[in-house]
Structures are given as C-alpha cells and as structure tokens.
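RETRY 2/3 - previous attempt timed out on the joint model. Re-submitting the same 792-residue input unchanged.
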Amino acid sequence: NYNYSSYDTEKTNTSKRICPQSKNLPNEGKRNSKISISLEEAIIQTGLKDGMTISFHHHFRHGDQTVEQILKIIDKLKIKNLTVSASSFTNAHDCLIDYINKGVITGLEGSGLRGKLGDAISEGILTKPVILRSHGGRARAIESGETYINVAFLAVASSDEMGNANGYIGLSCVGSLGYALVDAQYAEKVVLITDNIVLYPNSPISIPQIKVDYVVKVDKIGDALKIASGEIRPFFQYKEIKIAQNIIKIIKNTPYFKNGFSFQTGTGGASQASLLMLKEQMLKQNIKASFFLGGIIGAQTELLKEGLVQKLLDVQSFDLAAIESIKQNINHLEISASFYANAHTKDCATNKLDYGVLSALEVDINFNSNVLTGANGYIRGAIGGHPDVAYGSEVT
Amino acid sequence: NYNYSSYDTEKTNTSKRICPQSKNLPNEGKRNSKISISLEEAIIQTGLKDGMTISFHHHFRHGDQTVEQILKIIDKLKIKNLTVSASSFTNAHDCLIDYINKGVITGLEGSGLRGKLGDAISEGILTKPVILRSHGGRARAIESGETYINVAFLAVASSDEMGNANGYIGLSCVGSLGYALVDAQYAEKVVLITDNIVLYPNSPISIPQIKVDYVVKVDKIGDALKIASGEIRPFFQYKEIKIAQNIIKIIKNTPYFKNGFSFQTGTGGASQASLLMLKEQMLKQNIKASFFLGGIIGAQTELLKEGLVQKLLDVQSFDLAAIESIKQNINHLEISASFYANAHTKDCATNKLDYGVLSALEVDINFNSNVLTGANGYIRGAIGGHPDVAYGSEVT
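RETRY 2/3 succeeded.
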C-alpha cells in the first residue's frame, strides 16, 4: 500500500514557497564555463542518488532524443528508485517502460499518459500511483515544494557556456520553453542539454544563467520533423466543421464577444476550423481580441499579423509557424507555466480568459468531463490545462 | 545597543531560499483587476503594520515622486517603526528624514547614502545602524530571506490592470527595472504605482502579474527631467581625460583585450571619455566586445549600434539614449540585480567580466578602497556594484 497524501489545501495556504537552489552555492566559487565534458560527468556532478526526483519537459514532443540518453546513463550509474516529474509524457517517453521494469524509475508525475507508456501504466507496471496534475497544478506543486525536483534535465535549442538558454535558436527550435521555466526556477540542480552552444551572452534569455548548474553538448537533442510539424490543414473532417460551427455559435451569442475579448483553443482540426470561423465573425462584426493564450498554433499567428489580436501569450509553440512568429513578433510572448495557469499565484493568465475551448473524451449531461481515461479503462489523454482554463475562463 | 547579527556565511550556505508569496493566495480568489481606488486603500489592503519592512527601488532617481506620497499616507495611518529597504537612496529620499524623526521609519537598508539624508544619518538621527550592501548583496539578502520585505512599493512606467509592468512605456520611462525585479519576485505583497495604465496584456513583461497584488494609478510618478538626463558631454575636464587615458593604457596592455572581451564602467565624465578612447582602440586593433554590463549609458548604445559590442546587459538605464536603446534594440537586454551581481546564484554576470572600471573616494597603496565615506566622516557615496564587480572581473 502506497501512502499517498493528497493535495492539502490548508497546508499549502500557510506554507512558504521554497526556492531551494542556494544551498551549496558559495562553495561552487566563480566559474568561467559550465560546460560538462559529457552527460555522464554532469549527472555525477549533480550528486544524483537513489530515491531522488528528476524532471523533464515535453517541448520537444515526439522528437525528443534526450530523455533516453539521460536514462541510459543513469541506469549505467546504477541509480535506482527515481521519481520522474515531466510536464507531459509523449511518445519520446515510451522508453520509460524499460527503466520502470528495471527499477530505475519507480514514480511518475505528469499531466497525462498515452500510447505505449499509457497502456503499460494502465496495466499496472508501476507500483506507486502516478500523480497527474494540470499544467498549472504542476507549477503550483513545484513552487510550493510539494514536488521537490532534485535534478532538472532540460533540453534547449541553444545555450551559451553559462546556461543562458532559449528555444528559439538552432536546428531544434521549439519556440516557447514555458513549461521548463518553472523547473529551471525551482529545481535544486539544473542541467541543460543542447546541440547548439552559442557565444556568451545568448539571448533572448528564457532560462537565465543564475539558475543553471551544468551545460552539456550532445550530438542531437531531437528529430526536428517530430518536434514541430508545419502542417496547415486545408481540409477538415465533417465532424470537425460541425464542432467548430457550434463553438462559434456559442461565442457570437455570449456577451463576452466584443472588442478586447480573449480566447484559448487547442491544436486539433476543430480548433483550426473554429479559428477560421472566428476570424470571419470578428471581421464581420469589426471585433478585435486582446489576447490568445496557451499552446499557440500558426492560425493564431495569422490573426496577430493581421492586427485582429493584440498579443499571443505562448506557453508552448505548437507548429513551425508559431515558432517563427515567437522569434520575430514582439507581441508574441513566451510565458511560464506559472504565469499561464498556476492558480496559487497572484492571478494567472487563465483567470483573465473569456473563452476556453477544451476537448474531452467524455462529458455527462451535467458537464462533468473526462479528458484522461478511455472507455476501456486505459489512460489515453492528458489533463493539460483543462481544469485551470475551466476555472479561469468566463465561458468554457 | 542594537543587536546586529552580521552576515552569517555558514547559515546562508545551508538555508533554503524562500519565496514567501503564496501564503494567503488561495483566499484571494480570482480577480479581474487589481487596481485599487487609491494608494491609501492599497496600503490598508496589504495589511502593513508596525515593525514591518517596506521597499522602494531607485530607478526614477532624483525624479521619483512616489516615495513621499507613500510615506505621507503611512504616517496618516499611524503606522510606526518601519524598516525601509531601498536599492539605493537618492535626493528623492531626502523626505525620509521627516519620517525618521517622527518614528515612522526606524531602520534603513540600502547601497549608499548621500546629500541631506546622508548627512542626517551621519549625524545620528537613526538609532539602529543602517545596513548598506552592494547591489548583488541586496539581491542575495532578499532571496535568502535575510531581508524579508513585507510590502514592496514599486513605481513603474506602465502597468496593465493585472500588474504586468515595465519601465519602457509612458511619460516617465526609465528603461530597465533591474533592481526592482528582485523585490517583485520575493516580497510578500507587491504594490505597483504608475501614472500609465495600459491595455491588458502589457508587454514587455518586466514584472509579471503573478507577482503583483495591487496596482495604483497616481497623477504623477516622477519628474521626467530628473529621472533621466539626455546629457551628452562634448567636453571633459582635464582630470577626466587623464583618468580615461590611464584606464585605456591598462586595458590595451592586458591579455584580456581581444575579441569577445567584456567591460563595465560608470556614468561620470571619465567613464564617457574612456568609452570614446576604448572605441578608438577597438577600431585600431579590430577588436570587438561581447558585452557591456551594469548601468548603461548612451555612449555604450552607440557601440552596440555600430556592432562593436554584441550585447548590453542593463540593470539600470542611465540616460535617455540608453532608455531609447533598450526599447528598440533586441540586443540590449534588461537583467535583474540578481542576474547582474548576486554571488549566491549559480554565477552572476559580474563573474564573466574582463574589465570593471570603478570609482572610489579613497584608495590606499594596497588597493583597499573606500567608496562610501568622505574624509570628514560623512557618508557621501554608495557601495553600488563595486564589491561584486571587483570580485567578478579579471581586471578591476
């Protein structure tokens, strides 16, 4: 029996947030470079030990090639019983199954599970219950100390020798590093992994050097084709069109649809179709939006360029057009998971939303939604930002 | 006798950094605007009480008109025995003398003292010793919890209704808000004071909404003429030219003067003259710099424009040309006091400096320097970033 103490509101209310990074800092002295000769060297230097918690982000999505490299070395070093806290699990995390079976990993925290890992977990390969939180909930857990990350392994598109890093520059661009910013801020040790070391000082500074312990250069951090797709959908399924039409019907008949409204949607065909229809309505009624929030897609950057929306607040850039936009457009802003959706801050961005469009696997007639588990009992989805957006927005 | 426990390295080494902002957050609920109807209302809402610590920044320099407005109301509310932690004290803080005499303020922490306030303190109007730290030292003290700020009052050039703020937009521009960023990050309550409320979401986001409790609009936050001067010096004193010549003589004869070197200097005539001469040497030897650090002046932005330096890392924009540059040039970066000079981070920017040029009131033949106290025993200067730069740079 695993003794899981659930989220204790009272305790969190009165506790202080902890930023544990300074513990041994003065002993490090002054360094002129943080580049480790190898990933193995960096892992040894962090002091990673049995039973600790490590973290990853999922900005490189299915194209991530760092998670497996890191776990292979941890296994080689015979470190066991680790908890992995990830902003989400993608196909790139299927390799975790092997390391769970070997006892290297015995705990998982994330926002969802799918694919082979989801199946394996659903079938019970992990003895401890997986802890799944929303994107904002994960930021809250890390900031409050509920999730204490000993070592964060953060893949970045570029870094200088001191650890100033971003997702903008290099062969493996991802745009916003929003989810990783919280790990960088609060983890005890931070290791950056990149295939692109640039001249000091690197900018924009998404992750600042003052939060970084080690920088490791590897041959390849990802498969660019799987990191972001340039897919622009000219055709939609009939179902997607119908859903989009219903979304727009609701929006245009609610009082929040006026100048300065705000909107969040997802990545699927229905979302893309609804954006096209929303644009049509906005032009027709001469209405402009103040901001679009969350994971950003190319269709939203078009509206930014055309002046139909004032700002994009981007926690994750979903496609190549979004990545290009965040590089070039000063009104396309990178935000952290905490800024995005952490309800335990002094008001996060989701709390300013008018419209949140969310997908669900099952919805009952009282609007209770399941976004996680298939009808067959297998975990096949992600909580994502759903509860945060549903709480924050005027119309969900 | 005031029992002053001096900076305890051992204790700081092993303690955890504390970010105390979440204490009562969930009770606040979801807010659609943080604008208080008045400064008085905001101060009451913060729960400010006798014996607490409040903070100010000095980015508005001699032109700041918020400090006096705030202290007047605090006095009216009969709150006593406060400690003021400020990033520095300027002429705008001369008004503190009255409130010290009234017992409203009984403790001061800053980086220096000068003018009337310096004289009054030197003559003993404050019973507790003033605590003066370097700019990096103040950031360290705040992050470690050694200085616990109950309420930070931060003047900003612009803010939206949720507290996304910067020093870039409005009538009272100051450019970088570097020193204030640490207060915003760690103070228990944060009150922004501005004369310029802009549409949500404001950007660039120097201070993010998730760190802000209240936003107050006042008629005027400052006297633009005293905030930043547009002064470009065509003439220099003979003494300044001689000092500048000596600076350049040293620089060009040290091995660090090569492509990619870095440099920090101050605001005086000698600094401006030395920059002109440095530029001459750089052109002559075809040498380009990687970054200039610290308080940034117009002459440095010229070198940025001309491609002679790659980046400016700006904790405080000293003149109008610097303010214009940070607004427009993506290679002119706003950095926090912690990024700038906090030695208890995982390496701050001063640690990457090749050359640090610092002024001093007195230097002995063993290079021990006094930057604080005049020969008459009166405090008339500021520690500023001096110890941080001296420790970090290869040549001081």
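The domain at 238-392 of chain B is CATH 3.40.1080.10 (Glutaconate Coenzyme A-transferase). Closing ticket.
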